[in-house]
Every structure is written in structure tokens, then in C-alpha cells.
Amino acid sequence: MSVLVLGAEKYARIKSLMPGVMLAVILAFAATFISDHHGGPTLLYALLFGMSLNSLIEGSSAKSGIEFTSKSVLRIGVALLGVRIGLDQITQLGLTSTSILVIAVIITIISGVLLARFFGFDKRFGLLTGGATAICGASAALAISAAMPNSPNKERSTLFAVVAVTTLSTLAMILYPPLALWMEMTPEESGFFIGGTIHDVAQVVGAGYSISPEAGDSATVAKLFRVALLVPITLFVTTVFKQTNPNKMKAYLPPLFLIGFIVFTGLRSTGVLSDFLITQLSELSRWCLITAIAAVGLKTSLRDVLQIGHQALVLVVVETLIIAGLIIGSIYLVH
């Protein structure tokens, strides 16, 4: 009898989630269709589509499913990002290049935290935008936000970070290749510059291969190493912002999605996963993130995001210029 009751409760739970989950999935399909046929960043489309429907879901039966998608599906997508990274790719960079990237990422994040105070924002906002700029754009913003404790402005700040870094990443994809050619960088240097500075993976690939196949390969490897830095940075965020918990051991455990990220990275590195499975899991990760960001958009109005102000955009632009300056400087000093 108790089994039947539990089954009924699970069915009722799934049924209550379906309207919101399906709405987010439909928006993800719409964003992907527009991006595939007309170009542009899929995540940004999903976010804007979601925000455009925000006023329609107030008080609707879709709210619980949207909440589930924006949190649980997001964490699944971030965990699956680990299949993109293998230790063999990281070793291709060499000690000098990896050290440069680590230093550039750390300096950018610290600058974000310090500059946030200068522009009138709290350190959480600076860490969020700095991490998104330094590591892997929208995916990093979502992962870092998931590791942070809840706060009244958390979702609004996350949405702003996603919009800002995605927009700047798209601009960088257009501007950085001709800049690299104008500065007479070699294909390898161009790739290192592209992969070490542009925020989102898709834009890195687009910009790198628009220069040459060699530049594209170099850019992809450099970018994947920055994505790998999501693990220690998110662990750091979890430690700094851990919430009060009577179980001290539990308070120090990393989030499950981060453990999943590490596990999938290990599976990729050991060769357990076939190329076909890696491709499918990477695609599943992409769909989870698109669907989750659509759900986050559904929860937040555009008016709330715009209330953050132009100073926040200036902050993200400055962070972008900092990491670009550091990588260009390293190319001329070291490479």
C-alpha cells in the first residue's frame, strides 16, 4: 500500500512539473532554431524568449516546473560539461601557457571583486561577473551562481552576467580575429589569444577557425583549459559562501553538480567514454543549459535586469579588457 502511495506522490510531482519543464524545452527549441538558421548566441535567445513571457506565467501552474528546470536541470548541464575536457588536451598547452591562463583567470576574478566595490556593487556580483568573464561565459555564470547561497538579487545578477558576457563574447568573436591579424600574431599565438580571452566556447571556436585551422585548434585547447578551471573556482566559491550548517562535514562538501563535473572529466580522460558517447553527452549538456537559461528567463522580468544599471555593464567591459590585456601582454613577453 505504501508503495502505491509513493508512486502516486511521484506521479503527482512529475505531473505538476511538466507544464513548466515543457515550456522551457519549447523555448530552448525555438532559440536553437533561430540560432541555427539566422546565427547569434543560442543562450541569449533562450534568455530573451523566457523574459518576454515572464508576465504570463505569474500564478500559473508552470511555476514549479520552471523552478525545477532553472535549478536541477541547470546543475545536470554543468555536470555534463566535464565530458568536453580531457587531460590529454590540457597537456598540449604546456606548463608556460597553462600558468599564464591560470594567472590571467585569477587576476580577472580578483579585479572583478575589487572593481565591483568601486562601482557600488557587492563582492558577490564582482565574483559572478569576474568568473563569467575569466572562465567560460554564461556557463560559468550559471555554475558560480548555483554554488552561491540564495540572496534577493541573485537571479537578477546572474541574468545580467549572462546577457553581458554573451553580448561581449559575440562582439569579441567579430573583432578579435582581425585584431590578431593586425598585430601579426602567428596562428598559434592567435589561437592562444582567442581561446584565452573570449568568454563562450562557441564564439571561441567560431573566431579561431575563421583565422585558420591551426588557430582554431589552439584556441579550442586554450578555451577548454579555462573551462577546466571552473572546478577549483567553484570549489572556492562554495567554501567562501558556504551557508551555516550544523553538520560541519556536509558544509565543506562540494556541490553534487561539481562532483559530477569532475567524474565526467575523469571518465573522458581515462578513455572509458567512446567518441560517440562524448558527443551525445556534450549535446545533452548543451540542451540542459539552454533549457535552464530559458527557465531562468521565465522567472525574471527584463525591467529587473535593466535596474542593475549601466555601471554594471562598464564593470564587465573592464573585466573583458583586463583579461585581453593580460593575454596579449603574455604573448609578446613569453610566446
Automatic annotation (TrEMBL):
- Record keywords, A-Z: Cell membrane, Membrane, Transmembrane, Transmembrane helix
Record-linked InterPro entries: UPF0324_pro
Q: Does the keyword Cell membrane apply?
A: yes
Q: What is its main location?
A: membrane
Subcellular compartments: Cell membrane
Annotated membrane topology is: Multi-pass membrane protein
Cellular component annotations (GO), alphabetically ordered: plasma membrane
TM spans, by residue? 16-35, 42-62, 99-119, 125-147, 159-179, 224-241, 253-278, 314-334
Similarity section: Belongs to the UPF0324 family.
Q: Which PANTHER family match?
A: INNER MEMBRANE PROTEIN YEIH-RELATED, UPF0324 INNER MEMBRANE PROTEIN YEIH
From the Swiss-Prot or TrEMBL record, give the protein name: Membrane protein
| Species of the source | Kiloniella spongiae
